[in-house]
Amino acid sequence: MRFNDKLRLAWKKNNSLVCVGLDPDLSRLPAGMAQQRESIFEFNKTIIDATHDVVCAYKPQIAYFSAYSAEEQLEQTIQYIKTHYPDIPVILDSKRGDIGSTAQKYAVEAFERYQADAVTINPYMGFDSAEPFLNYQDRGVILLCRTSNRGAGDIQDLIVDGVPLYERVADLVANQWNKHNNCLLVVGATWPEQMAKIRNIVGDMPFLVPGAGAQGGDVEQLVKAGKTADGTGLIVNSSRGVLYASNGPDFVEAARNEVIKLRDLINQFR
Ligand SMILES: O=c1ccn([C@@H]2O[C@H](COP(=O)(O)O)[C@@H](O)[C@H]2O)c(=O)[nH]1
């Protein structure tokens, strides 16, 4: 099934636009869980089991695995989701980007080694660096457009041909790179004004929206700025806000409650 179809079904099945980011930080694991790489899969599995019916996607961030030489735990986590909750898409957040021959290997890493349904990539090396990913027509390719961080504007707001670079990226992706209808954009929850502009440029293209939760993005503003006419179009990610809602014995319940709270708040404004 194509990524965008899988996403649409997940939005509908769980009536949720929430994506849980799987960013396992050994120093923040719940009390009683050993701070060692072997705990990562157990922690992720517990969070996934507790939230699979209230999310539309999971987003493991590769750095939280490779930093601990825990690639095996990343593989196990993705396989666990695909086996037990096959309706929930997995987005590998790795933000790769390189010359075509190397990008080809990164595409194999994301889509064949890790079996991700979608991957984040950096578009700033141009079309040939994105093409190896885009050629996997059933997978999603999520390109950085206006990121959630404080310094997002340093480069993304530079004026190119009379418009900010992030608008050029949005236009380029929507009108030239999206031949297989498998492109999405990263648009930070922290920039609702820019999000509204991007929505105007790209029509119904889905956005991966990091920055709700720990980064403080305003949910009402982001949903109003980014939703599509049918009240979808957004994959709203929260990582730390969910994973570390509590580090006590109630961490599972606290994580689930956090997701439900975010889901219900988003749904209020769809
Ligand atoms: O613009 C971006 C792109 C990616 N991210 C990633 O999303 C999560 C956010 O984590 P929180 O704990 O919910 O803040 C993290 O994996 C980032 O690498 C982003 O924040 N902004």
From TrEMBL:
PROSITE patterns named among the record's database cross-references: OMPDECASE
GO BP term (any one): 'de novo' pyrimidine nucleobase biosynthetic process
Keyword rRNA-binding found: no
Pathway given in the UniProt record: Pyrimidine metabolism; UMP biosynthesis via de novo pathway; UMP from orotate: step 2/2
Residues annotated as catalytic: 95 (proton donor)
UniProt-recorded Gene Ontology molecular function terms: orotidine-5'-phosphate decarboxylase activity
Family matches, as InterPro entries: Aldolase_TIM (IPR013785), OMPdecase_AS (IPR018089), OMPdecase_type-2 (IPR011995), OMPdeCOase_dom (IPR001754), RibuloseP-bd_barrel (IPR011060)
Coiled-coil features, chain-numbered ranges: none
Catalysed reactions listed for this entry: orotidine 5'-phosphate + H(+) = UMP + CO2
Domain Orotidine 5'-phosphate decarboxylase, first and last residues per copy: 17-255
Top EC class of this enzyme: lyase
UniProt keywords, alphabetically: Decarboxylase, Lyase, Pyrimidine biosynthesis
EC number: 4.1.1.23
HAMAP family for the chain: OMPdecase_type2 (MF_01215)
Family stated for the protein in its record: Belongs to the OMP decarboxylase family. Type 2 subfamily.
NCBIfam families documented for this protein: pyrF_sub2
Protein name as it appears in the record: Orotidine 5'-phosphate decarboxylase
Annotated source species: Spartinivicinus marinus
